[in-house]
Amino acid sequence: MGKLLRWSDQVFAGTMRRMEALHPRRRLQFVAGAAAVLIALLAVLYTRTTGVDVDNQNRVIFQLHELQQLDAGWDADLLRAHIGSGLADARLAAPVAQMRELMGDLEDALPPTRDRAARQAHTALAASLRMKADLVAEFRSLNPPLRAALQSLPPALADLKTELGGIEGALAPGRVVVRIDALLNDLLADTLRYNLAPTPGLARRIEITLAQIEPQKSRFSQAIMDGIDALARDTRTILANRPRENELEAQIAALGTGEAMARLGREFDRAFQAEVLERQRYRGFLFGYSILLLALLAYAGWRLRRSYRIINDVNHRLKAANDTLEHRVAERTAELEEQSKKLARLAQHDSLTGLVNYGQLTRLLELSLVRAARRDSTVAAMFIDLDGFKGVNDTWGHATGDLVLQLVARRVQKVLRAEDVLARLGGDEFVIMLEGVGTPDGALRVAQTVLNEIEGIVEADGNPVRISASIGIASARGRAGAESGAAALLADADKAMYAAKQAGKGTFIIGPNAQWGSLDTDAGSGK
Length: 527
Hints:
The protein is of the alpha+beta class. Helix content is 74%, strand content 8%. Residues 519-523 have low confidence and may be disordered.
């Protein structure tokens, strides 16, 4: 700014020397041209002080949040497909198109930032998501035959043993029947162990067992031969697909798409903040230039006495313009501060229910685990999944479904303590964080109260509804809980919730890894 002022002083001094040598008419023309240049410079500075596109920044934050939710759901469906959920397998390809659309929208928001780091982060994330989509596509090609083989192998082997124990076994030599029966038992046990932890040694042992079974099939009927062939096909499908599927899952986890999304969010924030600072810097330039301009006009008025009245009028107008500009700057600054507060809340809370979102929940959980480590106390997490909510949406529509979610949030929040935290993860999934719950009984009482409140919702927007909930309870204590982290605690609660689903829904279960105080008990459940 100092350089600009010194340069302006030099230009003004030289200009005045030239004006003194000009004819009065030429001098007036010169003054008019100089005034036009000064006004143009003022306009340029003013345009550089206009506010940042807050709407664009909001869109980027919302799109990044939606992208993170889609990626987290994708990972969850991948895990469900691994453990044998056919529905999850069908949903693995669903988020790809939406994620590509969101990445395209984020790329459209890049040019205004003029920031290379943000563009590099976007490129890296796009490459990771493309690679993840390719790996998931290969996973989807391997998972259905592997799942089918794992489902058909035990009953097929049981049917084969039954046949061998009947007429088929009576027609064959007894030692052969006994030998095949023992080999079938070994084959089932080794194959199931291999599915859990595939190793080359175990694979060789299974192949040796198959090599001992298959030559004996010619001693039996065509039905027994076909059964042995089907058994061998299923076993070799498991031998081929299980290690590759595990390898694909490891490669997907190593891509780190969640961290790449977080990095892109940080780069966007930094780019927007840099743009805000640049606008503020130009406001300073504009203020200094306005002062300089006033000084120039005052000096010109003193030198051009015959034009005093005109110069005086211009001076008043410029002063009024400066006051207006300061007023607009103050209003815009207040608007930006208000928008920043709204964005901070949106980044930490669910827009439908007003509850904290997943990102804020994990931060609060980490802080609670740190406090628990210092106090050697317990932090509990309750993972809630609504039962019957899909029927509400299908019957009465999403508007009624949204109202049901808001009712659940209000009723559950009402029965919790002030220090407890209720969060919505998305869809019909909620999580409760409790601190200082030293025994399973305390957690079970809270779960029963929450379940009663949810089941008490029988009407929404004039429509009858009937919902319940499956609740998974997990807890972590002291330093061990802090070392495991919030993600592990939520994962234990999620697993317990699925156990509650399998137990018949409308119930709650304490996970097997729950850590309590000195009066620890076994995992419990109830209704």
